[in-house]
Amino acid sequence: MKAPEMIKHVLVAVGADLSPGALSAGIARARENGAQLTLLHVVDSTPWWALAAAEHGCGDVLVAIDQHAHAVEQHCKDAIERATLDTPAQVLILRLQHGSIGRAIANAAEELDVDLIVIGAGQESSWCFWRQRTSDAVARCTGRAVLIATAPERARQERTPQRPAIHAHAS
Predict the structure, then answer these.
(1) Which of 6, 47, 93, 170 has a 20 to 30 A CA-CA distance from 129?
(2) Count of CB atoms within 10 A of residue 108's CB?
(3) Going by C-beta distance under 8 Å and a sequence separation of 6 or more, which residues neighbour residue 66?
(4) Which pTM value belongs to this model?
(5) CATH says 9-154 is which class?
């Protein structure tokens, strides 16, 4: 029986939603294995929806995307500080040049020679059925181990609005 390989470097992909499930799972895996930790946020500076808004004089959208990237970076730095790991940890912000965010994460994992990629499961969108989840793209584009983490229950409840109960009345 082959012994499991030791995890020496964990890459956590942190999305615009701050990926609470991925962050906690990645930090836990790094701590358990005494592994180096890299938190990566890929910024799509020109997403399709922002380009559509820019056509209508909403150039401030691109500024807001950049400001949000800085907020995510600070959140990641704070998470590393709170984790008090005994191993090296870093935050990387990667500007998407071309291709998909999933492919950019997979390429970064190759360049950094990580042993484990941790990414959030993401949410399905009924109106955007032709797009795949970023976690699926990462898993498809890499030969490295991928852990797809779900959000903690509290975070899921905060994102999911409660639907009002439907009452049927018999006449």
Answers:
(1) 93
(2) 19
(3) 43, 45
(4) 0.78
(5) alpha beta
CB-based contacts of 171, cutoff 8 Å, min separation 6: none
Q: What is the pLDDT of residues 71-115, one digit of tens each?
A: 999 999 999 999 999 999 999 999 998 888 999 999 999 999 999
CA pair distance 24, 147, nearest whole angstrom: 12
Tokens of 130: 């032709």
Q: Which of 21-30, 68-77, 160-169 has the lowest mean pLDDT?
A: 160-169
- Helices and strands (H and E) in the chain: how many: 6, 5
Domain ranges of the chain: 9-154
Please, what's the b/e burial string for 38-69 (b: 16 or more CB within 10 A of its CB; e: otherwise)?
bbbbbbbeebeebeebeeeeeeebbeebeeeb
Average pLDDT of the residues in 1-25:
85
How far is the C-alpha of 109 from the C-alpha of 116, rounded, in Å? 8
